[in-house]
Records
---
Amino acid sequence: MAETNSAWDMVTPMLLFSCFCLLVGDVLFGYDTGSFGGILANPGFINQFGQYSSITQEYSIDSLHTSLLSSLAFIGKFIGCLVAGPVIERFGHRVVFYALSIISIIGVIIEITAAGTVSGSGRLVQFIIGRIIVYISIGLVEVDVTTYQCEIVPANFRGLVIVSLQLFLNSGAVIASAVNKGFSTSSDSVGWKTVTGIQFIFPVLIICFTILIPDSPRWLLSKDRNEDAILALRRLRPKEDSENGNCEREIMAIRQALQEHIHKGPWVDLLRGDNFRRTMIVLVYYFFQQTTGQAFFSTYQTTFYKSNGFASQAFTYPIISSCLGVLAVIPAMYMVDKLGRRESLFITFFFQALWMFLLAGLGGENHKTSTAKNAIVASFMLYAFSYSLGGASIPYLLGTEIPNASVREKTQALGTSWNVIWAFVTNFIIPYMIDAIHFQVGWIFGGISLLALVYTFFTLPETKGCDLEELDAVFATPFNPFRPKDGQDQSTTRKDLESPSAGGLRKANHMD
């Protein structure tokens, strides 16, 4: 049996490049989410698309239209996520990368051209359509990048690679916050058009990067293209593995381990046997990703600051929060493979609840001292840090590694589509919640975070360090959180490792 650190011996420049280059797509998602929060508060955007009030003698966008602008875009993301699985299965990851880039470019053009010539003449419907189209590409990104990474990266640092998507998401948010700050006082259309137009950069980079990377060897195996799978693997593996036949043995070992699961299954397979349990776990964590308060701070923090006595710093505080989110991903990338998925989620959900409860408690005071106001801002920022420790990114990891190989893309597609539904719901209702109960929304989001912690304890087995093929054995038996070190994980996986197929997989230094 190979040493546990043998996966690191397979790291090559092409493997690293293939793992990380397309995360520029997640920069697009982070940038769009972060930038739109600032656009909603941008004077030029408000003058273009708002309604004029004779009482206040200024333009404004009411809660209904704010909700529509924020939430309707998720229709596109839902479409992108749902179709991503079948399209990837049929055409492969690389074709989908090209397609989503073209879709993104078209959407941005539609958004920018929605501007009118004078105040109040902006075509709001056209702008929303553009956002919907952009979000189709974002939905495709979420499924395509994570499933591609999961299938080419060694198990020892699968968590690190996939969790790193949050680093790129947050980096996009940092860029967006800085750009928003630069155009925060722009009263014409140049400011918000510039913020929106920067999104052209990301799909162009994706097209350039996709030319250079290989197809997933596992996807090629699902198409019975064994020779192509070997050639793709040779591009990802060290030169000596190509020369001594290790790539051929690895492909054969993976095919043997997968056996009847080598080909893709129908949608109904998501509900059959232990796939049902695995599918439900994925769906529940995507639900928690959206309902523990992330939209509150990512999309609405600027407008929330402006309406609650922090207007002078409303564009500055989000930059600090975004930077903290980036910093949090660095320990998260280490924790997820060192401590494991369960421990990481315990930490992130506990602190998410803590800061939301603190926000709600302090915000409920009628006469806030300067110390209380500073603590409220700190709670916002510390929530962003805690969310990025695992609550934001681990659902993507679980959505790619937990499903069986035959339904991996479909499970991730269904999970992210379910995620989008809740993103739509939260983005639509949060403006009304803020208007109605203000800081008390923290009690709701904090309570859901505690629920997520309890769910993790009772239902989620530890999957760190397990090969994708080994996880079939992990989920073959019920999970018992009171069994020392998860006995099912230790015993069934050990038996699986002793089987001929798994042994061959280990000896071949397989790609997962």
Note: The two ends are 15 Å apart (CA to CA).
---
Amino acid sequence: MVHLPRPFFFLLACLSLAAAPGWAQLPPAVPAASWLVYDRAAGEILASANSRQRWEPASLTKLMTAYVVFEAVRDGRLGWQQAVTAPEAVRRVGAEETRMYLRPGNRLPIQALVEGLLIVSANDAAITLASAVAGTEEAFVARMNATAARLGMTGTHFNNPSGIPGPSHYTTAEDLLRLTLAFDRDFPQVYAITRAPRFTFQQFRKEATNPLLGRNASVDGLKTGHTKAAGYNIVTSARRLPGAAGQERDLVAIVLGTPSKAERARSAELLLNYAGSAFHLAEVLSAGRELQRLRVHGSAEGEIAVGVEHTKQMALPAGTEAQLRITLNEPAPFAPLPRGAVLGQVEALQGERILARAPLVALQEASPAAWPLRLLDWVALQVMRWVS
């Protein structure tokens, strides 16, 4: 495990503005070892610092624990209302650890255990779920690591389901983003759990560990974590967050290694507010929209509309727009041309910086003209090429 020296400080020198050109507003100073902020609609990390730095996840580990449980339920190996038994191993959960006060032999439904796992970060819930899914913690941890590898989390390794520190227990901000996006894709129902302000089961009642849930109505999870070695970590999801130009934004902020609970919450809020105000969503390429009309020699149509087949949305610095540059493979194409034929390339630019590229295609068919006109066009085209 590699740790940065404390205090944790302002890592603007290592900062990466992944989607923004040089004139974007600089992000706030974040007192963390590693962080990033991501825009779901644009599919871009808007800003980051040390986002591939290995760091102890602490209880953020439980996100992977939950993901493996969700897979087991989806595959029919467990049921949400299925009661499972707390194993002997829950005895080793210490008094200083967060827990649901489970005793060996207690029986609880899977759903209640997952809620306790994610809302209040109960370590005994993690151990019980691991036993229910795989029989032993060791077998469950093997599944966690296999799942991490499958999701592309190449900077991650787990050695327990709870987040107990260890030299081979680590992750990165980018890997936690991959896991969050896997929840978005595979198990979006997780947010019905992680947005809950408190957890109640029978006589047990406790407030959620995520303080942003009570401060920002857009926040719907996901998880906090803390150990002495890791500092204070958080993965925060926000939906329909008010942003620049009246746009609502779907964002993820991940902060690892802040020095206090207060700084953890403040840092996540700063990044969400920065992403919402410093950037706006722009459709830099629009599927099916006519970009220009192109003369097609020898065609009955004379001209056809050209454009792109797929829409590309990006987060651009507030107050800026993209420009388009079109390059033709053949400046004087000859009919016939099918709809969808690639005729060149379109680039979305800010200054000389290329934001996106896409093939320029025919948005309509160019059918052959009657033979006299077709012949005249062909002769004219040859003369034009010879003269040029």
Note: Residues 12-279 form a domain with the Beta-lactamase fold (CATH 3.40.710.10).
